[in-house]
Amino acid sequence: MIALVVLLPLFIGIIQLISKKFRRFNISISFIYLIFNLIFIISNNGKNWTYQIGDWGNLGITLGFDYMTEMFLIASLIVFTSVIFNSINKNYSGFFYSLISILYGSLNAVFISRDLFNVFVSVELASISVFILIGFQKKGPQIWASLKYLLISSSGFNLFLIGIGTIFMETGSFSFESLNSSSKFATLLIFAGLSVKSGMFILSLWLPDAHSKAPTEVSAILSGLIVKLHVYLAIRFLQYDSFQWLENIYVVLGLVSAIVGVVFAVRSNNIKRVLAYSTMSQVGFMYAVPN
Fold first, then answer.
1. Residue 284 to residue 251: CA distance in whole angstroms
2. What would you report as the CA-atom Rg of the chain, rounded to the nearest whole angstrom?
3. CA dist list (Å): 64 to 34, 170, 175
4. How does DSSP assign 124-166, residue by residue?
5. DSSP strand E in the chain: where?
6. What pTM does this model have?
7. What's the CA gap between 190 and 202, in Å, rounded?
8. pLDDT, tens only, 224-237
9. What is the pLDDT of residues 232-281, one digit of tens each?
């Protein structure tokens, strides 16, 4: 059942891509996976479990569910339901809803993942969807903002990939538990990759343009989930031994981002840029109190 939380949105996204000319049909089937995910959340409320797919030992794909997973799945459900309802009266094609469905499944995959490589693949799939969605209306400023997002975030997350590769060399495992015995160098690479993706000040220069130029529905996803996704991972990783030395660094950078975000928001005249800098500030506050 848990696999359908990820696979059902992805499968529906493929159907929407094939049937992209039938707009009403694509909107309607979007609610199938939203309803299914609501049922999944209700049926697992308050539970705490892990499950490994396959019999590959340390190389296996591990999934899990706990209180933090539940909260982020609820947030994702609320944001995407609002986005789809808000898009009904707009002239978006089925391709838009296909990207939304794939993005939803990718984010769910991150929330339920308990191994580093699965997290990397899921985040990259989400990033590709976001890249296309930012420039979906094919306007010049949107395309530039989407390219900036792709170049900066992909370059940053390559550090994450090198980090998890280093951890595998050190421990022979991709599981989250391997973070208890990994080196500071590996955790620093993961920290840098997450920081670029998260919207933290200086490291996330893609955020203001992407947020302000993207379609309104995409801006909501960026602010409500995409930058918070990496805060979620940071908070989860800080529970492990090798990450705890970074806690004070998170606090300092978080406070700087929180203050600078407010300053830029006050000085901005564009309402969407105000929201972008506000998001940067909120991310800073989240990092400043990681526990």
1. 8
2. 19
3. 20, 24, 12
4. HHHHHHHHHHHTTT--HHHHHHHHHHHHHHHHHHHHHHHHHHH
5. 49-53, 61-65
6. 0.92
7. 17
8. 898 888 889 988 99
9. 998 899 899 999 898 888 888 888 888 988 898 888 888 888 888 888 88
